[in-house]
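Continuing the series of single-chain predictions for the mutant panel. This is the parent chain; the variants come on the following pages.
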Amino acid sequence: MTQMTEPFPKMAGKSRRRLLSLNLLMKSVTYAFAILGILFVLLLVVAIGLLRKEAVPVQAVPQQAVLFVNFDDAVSEIREDTLISDITEVPSVSYFDLLRALGAAAGDPRIKAVVAEVSNSGLGLAQIQELRNVIKTIRAGGKKAYIYAPGMGDFGGGTSEYYLASAFDEIWMQPDTDIGLTGISIEMPFVKDLLDKAGITPEFYTRYEYKNAVAPLISNKFSKEHLEETLKLGNSIFQRIFGEISADRKIKPEDLMKLVNRAPIRSDDGIAAGLVDFTAYRPDMIQEITARYKGAEIVSVYDYLAQLKPEKKDMPAVAFLVIEGTIDTGKSIYNPVRQELVSGAETIAQYLDRIANNPRIKALVLRVNSPGGSYNAANEVWYALKKMKQNRKFPIVVSQGDYAASGGYFVSLAGDYIYAEPSTVTGSIGVLGGKIVLQNLWQKLGVHWGQVNFGQNAGLLTTSRVFSESEKAAFNRSLDAVYRDFTAKTAQERKIAPEKMDSLARGRVWTGEDAVRLKLVDAIGGVNDAIMKAKELAGIGEKEKFEVIYYPEPKTLAEKLNEILESSPKVMVNSRSKLEKMLGDEWQLWQRLQYDAVLPPLKVMM
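Parent structure:
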């Protein structure tokens, strides 16, 4: 055996340098081949996608056409502008694009009617309410609208689908299926006991008693105020939905309530109850409808959108920008695998700069569909909007989607006019903060932490122990300052007396219908209303043509490749934390708790 006098034997200088150079060369070659391999695969996938698209040409719109829309298809508030969306057979259609197609079809003489399908839709409630109004506008213009359902929820869960369907002239359903018009349920998981067993202690503080985002962590049931808010929210949504279904289907409210309590109802029984007009299988329904219009051809909304001609580039324009998902500092993040979306203040500011530098743009429509997020980030976005408005001297009109609460409501304050749908969840003017303390967990595991601080509050955010009295006081001073800032800016922007703000704030959540009454928003309406209001406030003539420019603009191929290369380590990792696996689909709701200006993680089931 060779005797060693040192842990690692020394090498001669030249040999060591050669070995290091060889290692560096091998690593460089390995990384280069890995990168080239990724790029080759991506380019190959793109090429296959492009060939596939060429193999499936866009269907021309004939003179006798019926527009077909499947409301079960994924419709996001933002356009999915990625390599993945480029290579799929079915193109990505944003909510804005869907509204644009239906609006164009209403005035297109080639489109004789609209046929839709719905069974298990991912549309939000505010989106459904606007789509109902669009369908009614199409009908008011003399065109018919028909909807088909192969079923609306199995053993329940079809209330939102039926709510959408009730706006159509005729509802067709597949025989021997269910109408899941079972009502509305709002649920929230409370996990305090689970955390106690694990030795995890949430130490959070809120402003104030109605700011309930952390309630599931610190309690085992609804508090009085939490239950009050949940009942208020649910009742407002329920009354609106079932009032409109009753009116649309001409069913007395008391009779409709009996049907709800009987549901699920078989589709064939739904005819006698007035819930459904006809039962048939899809091919027979399509054949019947097209025959009514002299053999008109079915044209999908995707093909129709592809053939809508862009407006001329010399006309005035209104910008349309979406803030979707939680609001945070830094760049926007979209993970298509895990369906995570964060609107980054830095990215939003970049879009606003581009909008400000386009001389044709005369107004901005800001679509907000966010439960909130970081207060600092929301404050940054609010300031950027105010600054742009001041520098360019043009109006901002806000359209609130399913959620525009807490930080989402804060950014809305920059608007000259705010629209919300009746069931938009808005308000939640409050703040929360704290930390998860793992002290008991470490004790169970036999881990002991030592700590040396240079500054009385230097260890404020450590998870190894609870707040000291000094740290607790400092933390609560910060929350008080944020709450004062939020309420003061709301009072100033919305012209609400400061003494009245307390009754509207304290973390209270409002529906859009309530928010109009309380002057937190200006009117009930959706995207189309916001665009027309922006046109009006910008001084664009009533009959003058204008263009709506969607932001962000389409990405280049290089930008999409770079996006995948930057995010691939995050996207490719399939491992999930134990807590994430345990909470399942509710995990995205729990992710909100890392922010200080968010809605509670409630789940509305319809």
